[in-house]
């Protein structure tokens, strides 16, 4: 698997090709969960580069505001769809929106989590979480990857979490969905390596976003990154690392997991302790 320290710095190869095609040839980037946080940071960074945007969010009010602001400020085409991936149809009207658009970059960012005992959350919430965190990115990638492969270029980014590296109690389903993304996305990359399409699974740590307020966190650790820093780090690494971990502290955690193999019980205990201490849960 490609890692950050084995490739040259800066976007090269397929990542640069996808960004260039979207910037200079009228291509589009689809960003899910784009009305705030990391999704908004991706959308803003891409708009700054001159990339046309297709944006989705469950938050209709903020999505409308963001759409107008990015269009007016950066002079790019921006279209949006209020879409709840937790619905039974999952993608809803999104296939119609992307049908005649040449999507060069897909950023699967939408997701949510809960914190607390597994039995304290109702089954319907877990069903929604699986649809949003797992089914939506799988179906979107399945829809948009074949045209990218046919063109010999494109980029698919999955926003997972540093939580993917170990099971975390009091966040059991959320951390498992991110582990699924890491496993699934890496396998799809392996199937299509050399195709000209760039694949990246992003493993951010705690970030200063509304996500943590919604999931029940009471405070953030001092190493929490801004969404803008996370998105910038991701785009800079696009095409040179299949798995990218932004932030020094997060990279240390990833390295410890890779080079200090621990029994599963110990790994779970340590990861859970770090999460609970850092987030005050």
From TrEMBL:
The UniProt entry, under InterPro entries, shows:
NAD(P)-bd_dom_sf, SDR_fam, VLCFA-Steroid_DH
One example GO MF annotation = oxidoreductase activity
Q: Which Gene3D superfamilies match?
A: NAD(P)-binding Rossmann-like Domain (3.40.50.720)
Q: Which UniProt keywords apply?
A: Oxidoreductase
Q: Which segments does the entry list as coiled coil?
A: none
Superkingdom, taxonomy of origin = Bacteria
Give the Pfam families listed for this entry.
adh_short (PF00106)
What family does the Swiss-Prot or TrEMBL record give for this protein?
Belongs to the short-chain dehydrogenases/reductases (SDR) family.
Protein known as: Dehydrogenase
Q: Which organism is it from?
A: Planotetraspora thailandica
What are the top taxonomic ranks of the organism?
Bacteria, Bacillati, Actinomycetota, Actinomycetes, Streptosporangiales
């Amino acid at each position: 698997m490609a890692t950050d320290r084995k490739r040259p710095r800066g976007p090269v190869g397929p990542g640069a090709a996808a960004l260039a095609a979207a910037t200079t040839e009228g291509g589009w980037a689809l960003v899910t969960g784009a009305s705030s946080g990391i999704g908004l940071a991706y959308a803003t960074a891409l708009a700054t580069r001159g990339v046309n945007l297709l944006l989705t969010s469950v938050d209709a009010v903020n999505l409308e505001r963001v759409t107008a602001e990015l269009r007016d400020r950066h002079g790019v085409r921006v279209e949006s769809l209020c879409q709840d991936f937790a619905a039974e149809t999952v993608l809803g009207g999104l296939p119609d929106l992307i049908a005649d658009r040449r999507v060069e970059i897909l950023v699967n960012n939408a997701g949510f989590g809960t914190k607390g005992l597994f039995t304290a959350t109702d089954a319907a919430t877990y069903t929604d979480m699986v649809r949003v965190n797992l089914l939506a990115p799988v179906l979107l990638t399945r829809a948009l990857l074949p045209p990218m492969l046919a063109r010999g270029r494109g980029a698919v980014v999955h926003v997972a979490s540093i939580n993917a590296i170990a099971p975390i109690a009091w966040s059991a389903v959320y951390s498992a969905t991110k582990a699924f993304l890491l496993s699934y996305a890496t396998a799809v990359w392996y199937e299509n390596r050399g195709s000209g399409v760039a694949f990246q699974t992003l493993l951010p740590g705690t970030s200063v976003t509304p996500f943590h307020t919604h999931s029940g966190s009471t405070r953030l650790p001092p190493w929490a990154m801004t969404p803008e820093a996370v998105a910038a780090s991701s785009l800079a690494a696009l095409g040179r690392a299949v798995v990218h971990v932004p932030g020094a502290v997060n990279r240390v955690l990833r390295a410890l997991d890779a080079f200090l193999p621990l029994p599963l019980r110990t790994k779970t205990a340590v990861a859970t302790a770090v999460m609970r201490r850092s987030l005050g849960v």
